[in-house]
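Backbones bend. Our protein:
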Amino acid sequence: MSQRRWSIGELARASGVTVRTLHHYDQIGLVCATERTPAGHRRYTEADVRRLYRVRALSGLGLSLDEIATVLARSPDDLTTLRDLLTAQLDDLQAQAARAAELSGRVRALLGHLDRSRMPDAEQFL
């Protein structure tokens, strides 16, 4: 047992997540402590920390916890599943960006009318 072990509080502080989040991840099977003390306290191993890092990284890319669980349920080297999820995520982000660009254009046009001290027509609002 030469590897470092982290308590739930230590891991929460080091990773920037709350203890409550770690409890939730444990409850849904996303990140579970590999070990328990005789008193039942969680002890996280280096492998658990790496898994938490993957969860946080995938979450930061916008994947849902269900999608992350799908990726992690497969082999860590299952590039196909991860590629498929990230491709779908990229498609969704591009669609959101297109919608945001369209709305930005509409708002700019409305502001242009207001800058010229004119009320936009009803159609321009739509």
Observations:
- The CA atoms of residues 70 and 81 lie 8 Å apart.
- The first strand starts at residue 35 and ends at 36.
